[in-house]
């Protein structure tokens, strides 16, 4: 490629949208300074205005950067400072904020993916693969006559038609074990939403479980109080769903519950089992506590209501809010506040890849009126929006920091919690890597405080992502290297590993729809002894809504080609030897984590693969 800024230069386009070149000859004069040297790396942004045409006073000056990483206070020359400001000004004009829904994190001000610049759009490979996958899925279920059927399922066996649509070992395991209590409980540890379970030291007053109720599971010689003191009881509370708006599907009102589930860790082998379920936050004669000793269909229906609640909380909060929406804030703030030569930009840019595309596409096709969420889930778009607004009022920084979240929920030692085990390994590897990179470019706490671009980045995330809520605990500025390391680790983890953990298994756990129904057509039971197979099937979502959601989750669970696993850096943004050594060490540690996970998984009947590093995408791109 010929460019007036290069003197006998080679260049290539990087996979994250930034052009990369290496100067092969003498330095290039720029404003009287010799800015480039032999073999030095240079970056400019594909599509930057003015990049290909020199001005009267020389080439476009803010578009090209030396490969050497520099924080804001390290560029002393006024022209270099001006270059940084002009670059950011141009990007701030290109990437603007907007409010999509009141009370949500702010997002990119683009209506459709057609409006995106080339730097943020899917590659042709990724777009084509996604389109072909979608068409094949719709065609297969349409041929089976399921997408247009608005009525209820005729039988459980008829639902297997959807399961057979795209089988995996995990979907078959779910199908075989979905009714079992042990599998029901295990999903709170290693299923789609492994972030809600917490140790119960005191029963909530509005969950009046008695010793007599749970004696058949606890056995003789113990009591609820004894197990509470021993730390063997756990609680999953979906109370945030209480009173949330529900949807209308095919002209029929849908229903929701706000259940509480008490779980028991058996002594010895550590198996987790459900003890009791209450389907509302208000105890009383119309809100019975369901037990494993109840009639089969009473108990299965109660567990299925819990699974439906988990679907709603997972899709609206754990998946959409905590990963997609907040990561879009991280991406936009990075593009708007950190110039190309900033070491944090180079560290974070691999984790921005395609996020603006997939989120813009979601606002077009998923979370907009008359699309999948609105037409086929029990809460609909209004319920999703209300749930996100509620969660934003409660959202805390510690929830996004895995070690703090694990401690806060008291689940440090519960056995068989592979999300925690693998997640902590990944967090530790990312944290060590980030700490080394920060140590290279920030020699002291003062250097962190004095980096105006860094502080603007943090402030924009605080104000646009967390809406300026001081009660969130999210910092609005960073004062120390330690705080910066934790913050950047949080960003990278949530843009990569967290999304993989809560997104990659969506089809695995939802393909057999009764395991995780997206909606419920009948209200929660107010008494025992009324449930039956026929009533159970009638409660589940209609055929067309079931298939609509399952297709969407199948597409959202699988990367449509053009992947970049965590720890792969084909662009080589960093040119300093110390940074490259840190990258190599990070890759080596991820490889060891992967090996350990795969050895462990050989002994599991249902391997936990969602946090195996080669399967973790570096960014949220689907």
Automatic annotation (TrEMBL):
Record's keyword annotation contains Oxidoreductase: yes
Biased composition (Basic and acidic residues): 73-84
GO biological process: one example: lipid oxidation
Gene3D superfamilies: 3.10.450.60, Lipoxygenase-1, Domain 5
Residue ranges annotated for the Lipoxygenase domain, each copy included: 70-622
Region (Disordered): 1-23, 47-84
Binding site for Fe cation: 319, 324, 499, 622
Gene Ontology cellular-component annotations: cytoplasm
Any one GO MF annotation of this record: oxidoreductase activity, acting on single donors with incorporation of molecular oxygen, incorporation of two atoms of oxygen
Cofactor(s) annotated in UniProt: Fe cation
Cellular compartment(s): Cytoplasm
Cited SUPFAM superfamilies: Lipoxigenase (SSF48484)
Family: Belongs to the lipoxygenase family.
Protein name listed in UniProt: Arachidonate 15-lipoxygenase type B
Natural source organism: Equus caballus (Horse)
């Amino acid at each position: 490629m010929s460019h007036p800024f290069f003197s006998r230069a080679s260049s290539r386009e990087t996979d994250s949208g930034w052009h990369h070149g290496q100067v092969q000859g003498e330095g290039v004069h720029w404003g009287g300074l010799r800015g480039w040297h032999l073999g030095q790396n240079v970056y400019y942004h594909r599509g930057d205005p003015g990049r290909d045409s020199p001005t009267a006073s020389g080439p476009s000056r803010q578009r090209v950067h030396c490969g050497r990483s520099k924080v804001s206070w390290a560029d002393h020359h006024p022209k270099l400072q001006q270059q940084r400001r002009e670059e950011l000004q141009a990007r701030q004009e290109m990437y603007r904020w907007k409010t999509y829904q009141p009370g949500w994190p702010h997002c990119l001000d683009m209506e459709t993916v057609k409006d995106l610049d080339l730097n943020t759009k899917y590659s042709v490979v990724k777009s084509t693969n996604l389109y072909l996958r979608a068409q094949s899925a719709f065609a297969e279920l349409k041929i089976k006559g399921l997408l247009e059927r608005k009525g209820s399922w005729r039988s459980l066996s008829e639902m297997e038609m959807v399961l057979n649509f795209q089988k995996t070992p995990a979907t078959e395991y779910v199908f075989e074990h979905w009714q079992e209590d042990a599998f029901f409980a295990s999903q709170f540890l290693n299923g789609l939403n492994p972030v809600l379970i917490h140790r119960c030291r005191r029963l909530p007053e509005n969950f009046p479980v008695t010793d007599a109720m749970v004696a058949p599971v606890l056995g003789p010689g113990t009591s609820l109080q004894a197990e509470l003191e021993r730390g063997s009881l756990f609680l999953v509370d979906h109370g945030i769903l209480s009173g949330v708006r529900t949807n209308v599907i095919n002209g029929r009102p849908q229903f929701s519950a706000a259940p509480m589930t008490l779980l028991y860790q058996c002594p010895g082998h550590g198996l987790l089992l459900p003890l009791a379920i209450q389907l509302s936050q208000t105890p009383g004669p119309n809100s019975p506590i369901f037990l494993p000793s109840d009639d089969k269909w009473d108990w299965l229906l109660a567990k299925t209501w819990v699974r439906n609640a988990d679907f709603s909380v997972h899709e609206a909060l754990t998946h959409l809010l905590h990963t997609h929406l907040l990561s879009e804030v991280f991406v936009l703030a990075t593009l708007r506040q950190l110039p190309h030569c900033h070491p944090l930009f180079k560290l974070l840019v691999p984790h921005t890849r395609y996020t603006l595309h997939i989120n813009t596409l979601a606002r077009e096709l998923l979370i907009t009126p008359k699309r999948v969420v609105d037409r086929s889930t029990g809460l609909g778009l209004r319920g999703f929006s209300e749930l996100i607004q509620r969660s934003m009022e409660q959202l805390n920084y510690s929830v996004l920091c895995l070690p703090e979240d694990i401690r806060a929920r008291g689940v440090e030692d519960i056995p068989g919690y592979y999300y925690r085990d693998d997640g902590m390994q990944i967090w530790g590897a990312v944290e060590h890597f980030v700490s080394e990179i920060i140590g290279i470019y920030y020699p002291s706490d003062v250097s962190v405080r004095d980096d105006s671009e860094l502080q603007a980045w943090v402030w924009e995330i605080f104000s646009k992502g967390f809406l300026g809520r001081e009660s969130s605990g999210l910092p609005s500025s960073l004062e120390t290297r330690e705080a910066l390391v934790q913050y950047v680790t949080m960003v990278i983890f949530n843009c990569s590993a967290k999304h993989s953990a809560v997104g990659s298994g969506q089809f695995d756990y939802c393909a057999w729809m009764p395991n995780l129904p997206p909606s419920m057509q009948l209200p929660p039971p107010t008494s025992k002894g009324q449930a039956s197979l026929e009533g159970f099937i009638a409660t589940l979502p209609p055929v067309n809504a079931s298939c609509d959601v399952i297709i969407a989750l199948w597409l959202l669970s699988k990367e449509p080609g053009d992947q970049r696993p965590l720890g792969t850096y084909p662009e080589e943004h960093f040119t300093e030897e110390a940074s490259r050594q840190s990258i190599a060490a990070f890759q080596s540690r991820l490889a060891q984590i992967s090996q350990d996970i795969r050895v462990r998984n050989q002994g599991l009947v249902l391997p936990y693969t969602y946090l195996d590093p080669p399967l973790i995408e570096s960014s949220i791109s689907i």
